[in-house]
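Is this the right way to post structure tokens for a design question? Let me know if I should format differently. Anyway, here goes:
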């Protein structure tokens, strides 16, 4: 049931990481975002897709430091930080 809801609300994007422009942009993001390489590529792909407000379902706490996105998580380390920052939304 939950996966059907995600599929109904999500916008799938096609991404091929095959050029220097894409990877250079992801590496530039590395200078300002404390995320790992895979996350850099994913964020760049989302950015290029132009899907509007970025909403990510993840337990990867790297995303909690990326401004301008919404994350949906059950990560026990991210939730208390969100409370302190007054960013927690309970649904």
């Amino acid at each position: 049931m939950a996966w059907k809801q995600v599929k109904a609300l999500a916008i799938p994007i096609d991404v091929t990481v095959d050029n220097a422009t894409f990877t250079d942009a992801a590496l530039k993001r590395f200078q300002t975002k404390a995320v790992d390489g895979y996350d850099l590529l994913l964020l760049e792909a989302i950015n290029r897709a132009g899907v509007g407000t970025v909403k990510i379902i993840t337990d990867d706490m790297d995303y909690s430091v990326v401004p301008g996105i919404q994350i949906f998580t059950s990560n026990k380390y991210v939730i208390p930080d969100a409370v302190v920052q007054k960013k927690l939304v309970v649904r």
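Format looks fine. Someone answered above. Worth noting: The chain has four helices and two strands. Helices lie at 2-9, 20-30, 37-49, 78-84.
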